[in-house]
Here is the input.
Amino acid sequence: MPYDATELKDWQIAELADKNIPTPEQLVEMLALQKDELIPYGRTPKVDFLKVMERLQNRPDGKYIEVTAITPTPLGEGKTTTTLGLIEGLAVRGKNVGGAIRQPSGGPTMNIKGTAAGGGNALLIPMTEFSLGLTGDINDIMNAHNLAMVALNARMQHEANYTDEELAKRNLRRLDVDPKNVEMGWIIDFAAQGLRNIMIGLGGKKDGFLMQSKFGIAVSSELMAILAIAKDLPDLRERIGKIVVAYDKTGKPITTHDLEVDGAMAAWMRNTINPTVCYTAEGQPVFVHAGPFANIAIGQSSIIADRVGLKVFDYHVTESGFAADIGFEKFWNVKSRLSGLKPNVSVLVATIRALKMHGGGPAVVPGRPIPEEYVNENLGLVEKGCANLLHHLKTIQKSGIKPVVCINGFYTDTEAEVKLVKKIVTEAGGRCVLSEHWLKGGEGALELADAVIEACEEEVDFKPLYPLEMPLRQRVDLVAREVYGADGVDWAPEAEAKAKRFEADPAYADFATMMVKTHLSLTHDPTLKGVPKGWRLPIRDVLVYGGAKFLCPMAGTISLMPGTSSDPAYRRIDVDVQTGKVKGLF
Here is the structure.
């Protein structure tokens, strides 16, 4: 029986649902694993993916289901909730099903967005472990990343204090780092706006090299992007050595390999290669691997988790970050190209709330009460807002997929509003279902599960939007026009000069194009809702992720370090000192 999600908080539901967590013995049986393929980590073990893939390499893959969304409100529209609800619904239908989602960052968890553990009866458990570090992947990424910065600053200090002869005695060569052209900064897994711009090395010459520096949030690290796309441990190790940390005074890149720190970084990262196993509130297994940052990073559950899931499940559900213009576009043109895996169907999540916002409803501000327009029936706003939904629907269809539109039901939605959305989507040639997984769990997701099962039997002609041979600027123009709806692209002089240099250098021929823009609009401007017309996409810079092999065209200003609000979640999180249980997570 589902829990009363209208009365209970998520952490309370999670606590009650903990009884559904299988024992290690039960999990081995559920996943058809050998005993030595499960790595113990309390209630959230890891799976030894190398052993599993070697044993099951000839087993046919299961059905591959991707979950994306329309342009969200700042509160999010429930992709993770829908992912978990769909898994629960498919399980009710008797399917061997599981999924893969991303590990939450401590920044949003302690701020205003919450844990990304789903919600209501479509929730991930154990919620406390999931929300507070899990098996340490993000911590390992932080240590590995910051070790590169330690190596850089120490090298700059020694080069400033020693002659070439003295450096040679210490078995060091001069790298001649340009302190004004350092690519990396430090990372921490909190939203700490006070660390966006800092000075380090204050004091004397023994206190490091004096320079301007910066912090980003941990999940924005290139190491997280590498973890999401790595095929195996050798691939991970090779990519770590190609991370560009800084540039020398001639403009030549200085990598972690040049700093001789890549091996130690790989040592910190060695355990991150294996996915962690968590569960839906109804007990189905879900792999957790890679992180949530979907702007510069790829923002997908990992290729490794998907590869394992497709071997051990008949239906494997994976989640892409943000809306279809970002998450699905990167799944379509980057992740799937790298993995070689082709999806059977994509689920496009929409909410009545977000449709009303795109139809002209008042601003939705995190931490403030939802305006009454979003809880009272308003067919006019819903109808106008469906333009955004249909835009994303067409984007997915361009890939060769016939998507399923899922209305993620809120108990404030009215029957007339839901019928209107279904009518509009059907008239546009799509399929649309209502799912009440938040309120009812798997039993509330049966309409969605049935639509997905049906869609998985259809032929899919899945093809990327552009060939790898297409030059960078042409790729960006194509994405801007075909995915965002722009009239074209305007390049800042510096960005265009970089793009021309990358296009002319064969070393960048196989680099993926990782578009960077706000997730709150189809455009670069987060205030523009719906489907804006008559605009052009400005590209102000192109960043390089040498290890991940990403070229990142920057549309607008994207901060790698979010800020903490005036009413953050940590004000309500505490520990029950009698039981030791955490309360207040959401």
